[in-house]
Amino acid sequence: MNIVITRKQSTSSGTPGELVAVNPSGEAFTCSTLELPWQNNTPGVSCIVDDSYRATIWHSDHLDCDVLRLEDKHGRQNCLIHCGNFAGDVSLGMETQVHGCTLVGSRYGSLVNDDGDGQLAILESRVTLAKLIAFVDSGEHTVNYQWAAGCEPTACHA
Q1: What residues contact 109, with CB distance under 8 A and at least 6 apart?
Q2: Is 13 exposed, middle or buried (0-12, 13-18, 19+ CB in 10 A)?
Q3: Which of 20, 58, 87, 127 reaches 20 to 30 Å from 108, CA-CA?
């Protein structure tokens, strides 16, 4: 199955986007995504490079659920598509629950982070992840990461 993640404007609160998966019979699944801000692909603090990645369903004991695990590529390892709420720049006091992974959810909102501040968050993440995993089912998949027009890293951070 082919999955496309289109990223929008990257900010210190994270990089929002949209995931679209289409199965062989033409049915589509869509949801919102949230990743770390673009920081030149620096492991642990940046979203990953836009490219195509092989992905398989993998059980995360830490999250106690199935996730999509991306192939190790471009110097990045253990990148997942999983549930969570925050993907902010920790060097600016934001909270994050990812280190190069992609969060999925149904929509965006503001949640109170550990510092008591409101922060951009992705919502209904665990339910959305379960729906995505059920939709894609087993096997190997291709996840294509791309930037929306005008939101490429050089355009976003010029």
Answers
A1: 121, 123
A2: buried
A3: 58
Task: Kindly report, residue by residue over 99-144, the tens digit of the pLDDT.
Answer: 999 999 999 999 999 889 999 999 999 999 999 999 998 888 999 9
For the record, the structure tokens of 23 come out as 């199965």
Burial of 71 (0-12, 13-18, 19+ CB in 10 A): middle
Q: How far, in Å, CA of 6 to CA of 1, rounded?
A: 16
Q: Tell me how many degrees the CA angle 31-18-16 measures, rounded to the nearest 5.
A: 110
d(CA 106, CA 124): 6
- Residue 51 belongs to what domain range? 2-156
* 37 residue type, one letter: P
Tell me, yes or no, if the pTM score tops 0.85: yes
Overall number of domains in the chain: 1
